[in-house]
Automatic annotation (TrEMBL):
Swiss-Prot/TrEMBL catalytic activity: Couples ATP hydrolysis with the unwinding of duplex DNA by translocating in the 3'-5' direction; ATP + H2O = ADP + phosphate + H(+)
Biological role stated in the UniProt entry: Has both ATPase and helicase activities. Unwinds DNA duplexes with 3' to 5' polarity with respect to the bound strand and initiates unwinding most effectively when a single-stranded region is present. Involved in the post-incision events of nucleotide excision repair and methyl-directed mismatch repair.
GO molecular function, one term: DNA binding
Family according to the record: Belongs to the helicase family. UvrD subfamily.
Protein name in the entry: DNA 3'-5' helicase
GO cellular component, one term: DNA helicase complex
CDD domains on file: DEXQc_UvrD, SF1_C_UvrD
DNA sequence: GGCTCATATCGCGGA
DNA sequence: GATATGAGCC
């Protein structure tokens, strides 16, 4: 099964394994979606705001009091009741600090919530508290999070606390989703129409590239990507083209940075589009330029809550300040920010830890509440984490503690391995052992510093037949076929979306190449009309040669028809029609490559996921805003993800591989951020440590391949910052070679023992590998079996790899210790003596070469006459019977 | 003029 | 390891 998955989803093979393909299905609840087109198409006036929708309308739910009306006595009575011994159920079980954070509803509040101290619980209970006291309607609470996942979880948990009535919390969401909602209401004030599209980074880069070329600049010398990053940085600070520092402006495009930025914004406006940064920057500008608009929001939001406040960037901060500022010296705004300065790990993305450190200055009279009682981890883990983070300066200072102390608790384990492959192997073994003891795979996670580390674990787990899920890999919506389909939908929903149009005019191939597209483009620019319109015009003129003209006419006619169908066809049906009639599905059906069926599957899944939305537009909006795709929670699988995406999660057992200088702390952070960069890395380590509830394993290796180059590495300085008392250095024992059991004491010699010395121990561990159940499973599972040629190991580990690795499949491309595919021929000696399961004449399929007939068999090496690729010699485990 | 294949170069973080 | 460019072919 995993092998099939790999074949199907070549883009990021494994993600398919655990149902990455089902992105929008979680829980049974329909995703809450606001309907933007109908109610806000032309609404500029605040009076168009829908009145507060009654919220507790279920029978038996407490009735809200009318907004603005004096508090009826019932509320006071209930509030009193809440303080009584018979406190509401939802307050029970909170500790004193948590309860204070929940009950201090008025005035500015900063909750410093350490890892595992019940932060989400406080936030959700606080909202439930406000609601049940009748202090505000759900629609009067603004609650912002950073991820959709956090928002979803909050909705769900509030729902559990107050009954099922949370559908009515329209202003609970991510910064971006709330920003988009505001912007749709006031789009005209930003020079947009309310049906604007949101461009993702890919679109942005293509657009910038066009602009750079239009300026007559060399896009080699001035990479669009880099400029996109600069714009991002500026927008994180809330800077428009006029506001950027002169130095920044001069640094790009021969000093034309500012002009280019301006041109970019202008182009977005004509495209009726905005990028991610604009979702916050436009509202900020609107609030400043139109105090009446801002005032309306002030009236509306009685309570503001912010999650992960330490991650806010300057733009988000400005946005919040504007919304939370005191109006005319009247009552203090009720803003509650929750965060942990020790978990600020997004500095490189523009986050300002300063925001949280400055809170008391920004909001005078603020109540600061510290949550330090940890409910998650053992004393050993907490001790290790606290000791590590204490090496940072400039913290607000918190010390986590726990009452739970079990003498049986395991200390934090530090392991050494020879190289990353052995690391993966050993982690795999450990996981299997835990599994045998009855631990669920769902309770285990591998948290890596950089995503390239994931691959080795994936490879290993595939071999072992262990289920795993990758979080934060390339996402469903980033796949080529999905983006193509989405581009079709976008053009139908928003005919001015030139970027989408350009993407698909010639997909599938219609004979409209570069020249034709350029002509459409030029016509569009000259007449100041969208490209789709220009295409229709060109199709009726004699400007083009007959062939492209006919093709273009067909395209234009198609889109016209689909647009007409938009109103009277269900959007899922229309989506199917579009993909069918455009020839897009046929394109993949006729594609004989191995990934084509997977892509068709994905397209089907795309349509299926659209069912959860009420309209094509709301679906498009959802897709533009999802950053995290859901996972199939039902499957028992080990989680592999980056430390960044692990924040907020917890696992019984956590593996932290790759604790080596240069990787962790990451060289880049050190180079760019100096001391503060190092501190951010340390916080990242802290985040990693505090994800673990019971077991924590840290790994470092002495050799790692980075950018195709084997490099000797030295253990991370963070290892030395762990307290002896809570740490145990795992003895190498029978396996894991590397430092020969010396643990990280081996760091005295940065190059470790001679690599030749450890070959022996390494091979010992190799033979152990055969004994693992996973290996045996892999043996049974013939297709999984990787060839295991260790023969050429010595002396190879510092050379450059990277020749002939045309196949990303098994065994290939994994460094000198593995076999390599050269010109399609597998140069490997077999270790398996078992007879080949194939016989001469068998019809077989190979991932790369397609179908063919077995011509000869020699051990486990087959000679196959492929239909297309000709005669090749391959290892039998690389082909499947047809 | 458009399409397909093969080679050279860059770069990698993340919602 | 993906992307951009160029050669060769239809």
């Amino acid at each position: 099964m995993p092998r099939k998955a790999r074949a199907a989803g070549r883009i990021r093979p494994i993600s398919t394994v655990v149902g990455k393909v089902r992105p929008v299905k979680m829980g049974t609840k329909r995703q809450h979606c606001w309907r933007f087109p109908a109610e806000s198409l032309h609404s500029v006036e605040m009076s168009d705001f829908p009145d507060d929708i009654p919220f507790f309308d279920e029978p038996g739910a407490p009735a809200p009091r009318p907004s603005g009306a004096p508090a009826p006595s019932g509320i006071a009575a209930r509030a009193m009741a809440a303080r009584n011994a018979s406190a509401p159920d939802y307050l029970k079980g909170l500790n004193a600090e948590q309860r204070q954070a929940v009950e201090t509803t008025e005035g500015p509040v900063l909750v410093l919530a350490g890892a595992g101290t019940g932060k989400t619980r406080v936030l959700t209970t606080r909202i439930a508290h406000i609601l049940s006291l009748g202090r505000a309607y759900p629609s009067q609470i603004l609650a912002v999070t950073f991820t959709n996942k956090a928002a979803r979880e909050m909705k769900q948990r509030i729902g559990l606390l107050v009954g099922e009535a949370i559908e009515g919390m329209p202003w609970l969401g991510t910064f971006h989703s709330i920003g988009v909602k505001m912007l749709r209401r006031h789009a005209e004030l930003a020079g947009l129409r309310s049906d604007f599209t949101i461009l993702d980074t890919d679109d942005v880069i293509r657009l910038i590239k066009q602009l750079i070329q239009a300026e007559g600049l060399d896009d080699k010398r001035w990479p669009p990507r880099q400029f996109a990053m600069m714009i991002d940085t500026w927008k994180n600070k809330g800077l428009g083209p006029a506001d950027i520092p002169e130095g920044d402006a001069r640094a790009f495009a021969n000093g034309k940075g500012r002009e280019l930025y301006k041109a970019y914004q202008d182009r977005l406006q004509t495209l009726n589009a905005c990028d991610f940064g604009d979702l916050l920057c436009h509202p900020i500008r609107i609030f400043r330029a139109h105090p009446d608009v801002l005032k309306e929001y002030h009236r509306r939001f009685k309570y503001i809550l912010v999650d992960e406040y330490q991650d806010t960037n300057t733009a988000q901060y400005m946005w919040l300040r504007l919304l939370a500022q005191e109006t005319g010296g009247s009552a203090q705004k009720n803003i509650c920010c929750v965060g942990d300065d020790d978990q600020s790990i997004y500095g490189w993305r523009g986050a300002e830890v300063d925001n949280i450190l400055r809170f008391e200055k920004d909001f005078p009279g603020a109540t600061v509440i510290r949550l330090e009682r940890n409910y998650r981890s053992t004393a050993h883990i907490l001790g290790a984490a606290s000791h590590l983070i204490a090496h940072n300066e400039g913290r607000l200072g918190k010390t986590l503690f726990t009452d739970i102390a079990d003498p049986d608790d395991a200390k934090v384990n530090v392991h050494a391995a020879w190289d990353s492959e052995e690391e993966a192997r050993a982690v795999g073994e450990e996981i299997e052992q835990l599994q045998r003891k009855g631990h669920a795979l769902n309770d285990m996670a591998i948290l890596v510093r950089a995503s390239f580390q994931m691959r080795e674990f994936e490879d290993r787990f595939v071999t072992l037949g262990l289920n795993y899920r990758v979080v934060g890999g390339p996402r469903f919506y980033e796949r080529q076929e999905i983006r193509d389909a989405m581009a079709y939908f976008r053009v139908v929903a928003q005919p001015a979306d030139d970027l989408a149009f350009e993407r698909i005019v010639n997909v599938p191939k219609r004979g409209l190449g570069e020249a034709a597209v350029r002509q459409i483009h030029d016509t569009a620019r000259a007449l100041r009309i969208p490209m789709l319109e220009a295409a229709a015009k060109l199709a009726e003129s004699d400007e083009l040669k007959p062939k492209p003209r006919a093709a273009l006419r067909a395209v234009a006619a198609n889109f016209e028809r689909w647009q007409k169908a938009l109103d009277n066809t269900s959007h899922t049906e229309l989506a199917e029609i579009i993909l069918e009639e455009s020839g897009y599905t046929d394109m993949w059906k006729n594609d004989r490559s191995a990934e084509a069926p997977g892509r068709l599957e994905n397209l089907k899944e795309l349509i299926r996921s659209m069912e959860d939305y009420e309209s094509l537009r709301s679906f498009l909006e959802h897709v533009a805003l999802v950053m995290d795709s859901e996972q199939n929670e039902e499957l028992d699988a080990v989680t592999i993800m980056t430390l960044h995406s692990a924040k907020g999660l917890e696992f019984e057992t956590v593996f932290l591989p790759g604790w080596e200088e240069g990787l962790f702390p990451h060289q880049r952070s050190l180079d760019e951020g100096g001391r503060s960069g190092l501190e951010e890395e340390r916080r990242l380590a802290y985040v990693g440590l505090t994800r673990a509830k019971k077991n924590l394993h840290i790994w470092f290796v002495s050799n790692r391949r980075i950018h195709g180059l084997w490099q000797s590495t030295i253990p991370s300085r963070f290892l030395d910052e762990l307290p002896e008392a809570h740490v145990e250095v795992a003895e190498g024992g029978d396996s894991y070679g590397g430092y020969g059991g010396g643990g990280y004491g081996g760091r005295q010699n940065p190059y470790g023992a001679s690599r030749f010395d450890s070959i022996g121990s390494d091979q010992r561990s190799f033979s152990n590998t055969y004994a693992t159940p996973g290996w045996q499973r892999a043996q049974q599972n013939r297709n999984e079996a990787t060839d295991r040629n260790w023969g050429s190991r010595s002396g190879h580990h510092v050379e450059r790899i990277g020749y002939g690795e045309t196949d990303s499949g098994y065994g290939a491309g994994r460094g000198s210790v593995k076999s390599r595919t050269i010109e399609g021929e597998l140069v490997a000696k077999s270790v398996a003596d078992s007879p080949s399961p194939f016989k001469v004449g068998d019809r077989v399929f190979h991932q790369k070469f397609g179908n063919g007939n077995v011509a000869a068999i020699e051990g486990n090496k087959l000679t196959i006459d492929f239909d297309k690729a000709g005669q090749k010699r391959v290892i039998d485990s690389f082909v499947t019977a047809v």
